[in-house]
Amino acid sequence: MTKQDDTGFALFETTIGICALAWGPHGLVGVQLPADEGEPATRARMRRRFPDLHEGPPNDMAQHAIAAIQGLLQGVHDDLTHIVLDMCGVSEFHQRIYAIARSIPPGQTRTYGEIAEALGDKGLSRAVGQAMGHNPFAPVVPCHRVLAAGNKPGGFSAGGGALTKLRMLGIEDARPNGMASLF
Predict the structure, then answer these.
(1) Which position among 143, 169, 171, 174 bears the catalytic label?
(2) What sign results for the dihedral spanned by CA atoms 169, 164, 10, 88?
(3) How far is CA 179 from CA 17, 33, 164, 165, 174, in A?
(4) Active site residue 143
């Protein structure tokens, strides 16, 4: 593998629009859900987030991740935990939150409060919400499966906001705790 293959970013098509991911020698360094403004905006976001990376063909690891993300967004129940993430730029606290979120299986949800409880302090609900809002790996870290109190969608920082979150949950046929279905 050449040095150029060790790092980069690529855009790819999914059922919800053009997504992107960036990779480095230790795993994915970021994933981008579609921007409301389409492919040029998604590319521009990646260039802003990763100014030192060049757009290019994905290496084997990135191709594997792209195929898995595309599958998830087509309804394949894959938890994506096999995708390696490079979290060197992520705080230890956020890493703990993201690890809990990654344990939520497709088709299931948790609330910010339930994740806070798993961290040992129900009072951390707001901090969990903020961590989800800053998630650099959606949908590999499935923040779309984390709901506000009362199983309400809450906010979603990806393009399309809460409607995109609901659409992704619909693709997974999500059934929030204690509810038959969101749809």
Answers:
(1) 143
(2) negative
(3) 29, 27, 20, 17, 9
(4) yes
- pTM for the model stands at 0.90
pLDDT, tens only, 109-154: 999 999 999 999 999 999 999 999 999 999 999 999 999 888 777 7
Residues 61 and 96 in one domain: no
* CB 109, CB 137: distance < 8 Å: no
Beta strands in 46-166 (DSSP E): 110-111, 146-147
What the block records as the tokens of 36 is: 């409301």
> Kindly report the CA angle at 149 between 148 and 155, in degrees rounded to 5?
20
In residues, how long is the chain? 183
Domain, as residue range, for 143: 92-171
Q: Quote the CA–CA distance of 23 and 137 in Å, as a whole number.
A: 11
For the chain, what is the domain count? 2
Nearest to 173 by CA among 164, 165, 181: 181
